[in-house]
UniProtKB/TrEMBL annotation:
Keywords in alphabetical order: Isomerase
Any one GO molecular-function label of the UniProt entry: isomerase activity
SUPFAM superfamilies in UniProt: CoA-transferase family III (CaiB/BaiF)
Protein name: Alphamethylacyl-CoA racemase, putative
Phylogenetic lineage: Eukaryota, Amoebozoa, Discosea, Longamoebia, Centramoebida
Source organism: Acanthamoeba castellanii (strain ATCC 30010 / Neff)
Entry's family note: Belongs to the CoA-transferase III family.
InterPro entries on file: CoA-transferase_III (IPR050509), CoA-Trfase_fam_III (IPR003673), CoA-Trfase_III_dom3_sf (IPR044855), CoA-Trfase_III_dom_1_sf (IPR023606)
Family annotation (Pfam families): CoA_transf_3
Length: 384
């Protein structure tokens, strides 16, 4: 496994932190999730916990804090989701930024990053893409990238460092292409009037006769030519030029009416024979019915999670691939408390004392409850 031997402590949180830990665990890192103890009555299932182990810890007790610090001495990475000030009180971590003290969610992060203002249709409210951009792409995934960059650098310097994975920063960085196209015409006009944001009729989704949808991405001339051919509009001499922006509304209306004349699957068969960048908009239950997704084995059935279908880890490495998700169960909170403590050098007497004090615990019910935050920090220890 590519990350075998990398020891990671993940303090339980929402979305970005567990996703970052999931990525690292999928590729071989030993990820121990630090769950809250006692768990109380407000547990919510962590659906991003597969392949991790769990140690339950009460960070409100001095013994719990000392246990975390002792664990961190032997771990390579510590990922945390707290508001600024929490890790400082524990003796770890810098935080800054005007909004650093305030709670937020994905929609808030991408709003402050300027990304939300770019998404949506002309004359309508900005449209947010679930919580993919801030929490997962700009947060968890870039946090994982930061960890790997710091690990690689540590081999040269022998030193650890703080990786500040603020989700506003990450969402902004993901929008570099848009920022750099503000004056090229690709993405310089108002929301919903550019080539890639639903302004162009050849980069759009269209409803079909059966109430389903197709996605059209025929930007380049050769693909646009095949789009027109597939729609049987190639004989229509009155059709506006592809990049006559003043005629885009008219062209979009023409495409709308044409796509409504057949079902999604009928259009799929038409364009499977043409290189026009036209694809069906698949819903989650039908993903594995599509030939491409079958060929790629896009999803795997996780037998340890009741047969739930989950995406395979990506990217796929040829020599050191990620773990299969087929038998990767999510741990119960504190399921591995004693085993992890032993591995990290705690003696039996120490473990018994911590259990008796309530600083650590074990739980049979899976899940946790934690608060989402504006930023995440991880700590990479110095090499020995």
């Amino acid at each position: 496994m590519a990350l075998q031997g990398l020891k990671v402590l993940e303090i339980a949180g929402l979305a970005p932190v567990p996703y970052c830990g999931l990525v690292l665990a999928d590729f071989g890192a030993d990820v121990v999730r630090i769950d809250r103890w006692p768990t109380g009555g407000s547990l919510s299932a962590d659906v991003l916990a597969r392949g991790k182990r769990s140690l339950a810890l009460d960070l409100k007790k001095p013994e719990g804090v000392q246990t975390l610090l002792r664990l961190a001495e032997k771990a390579d990475v510590l990922i945390e989701p707290f508001r600024p000030g929490v890790m400082e009180r524990l003796g770890l971590g810098p935080d800054n930024g005007y909004y650093a003290q305030r709670a937020g969610h994905d929609i808030n992060y991408i709003a402050v990053a300027g990304v939300l203002s770019l998404l949506g249709r002309r004359g309508e409210n900005p449209l947010f893409p679930g919580n993919l951009l801030g929490d997962f792409a700009g947060g968890g995934m870039l946090c994982a990238l930061g960890i790997l960059l710091a690990v690689i650098e540590r081999y040269k310097s022998g030193k650890g460092q703080v990786v500040d994975a603020a989700m506003v920063d990450g969402a902004s960085y993901l929008s570099t292409f848009i920022h750099n196209h503000r004056h090229t015409g690709i993405w310089g006009n108002a929301r919903g009037s550019n080539v890639l944001d639903s302004g162009a009729p050849f980069y759009e989704t269209y409803r079909t006769k059966d109430g389903k949808y197709v996605a059209v991405g025929a930007i380049e001339s050769q693909f646009y030519h095949n789009l027109i051919k597939g729609l049987e509009l190639d004989k229509d001499e009155s059709l506006p030029h592809q990049f006559d922006t003043a005629q885009w509304p008219t062209l979009k209306q023409t495409f709308t009416e044409r796509f409504l004349s057949r079902t999604r699957d009928e259009w799929t068969r038409v364009f499977d024979g043409l290189d026009a960048c036209v694809t069906p908009v698949l819903e989650l239950p039908e993903l594995m019915q599509h030939q491409h997704n079958k060929d790629r084995a896009l999803l795997e059935e996780n037998e340890a999670e009741g047969g739930r279908w989950e995406p395979r880890p990506a990217p796929r490495l040829s020599r050191t691939p990620a773990y299969s998700v087929r038998a990767k169960a999510s741990p119960a909170a504190g399921q591995h408390t004693q085993a992890v403590l032993r591995e990290y050098g705690f003696e039996s007497d120490d473990i018994a004392r911590l259990l008796a004090s309530g600083a650590v615990g074990e739980e049979t019910q899976s899940g946790f409850h934690a608060q989402t935050l504006w930023r995440s920090i991880l700590f990479l220890r110095n090499s020995k």
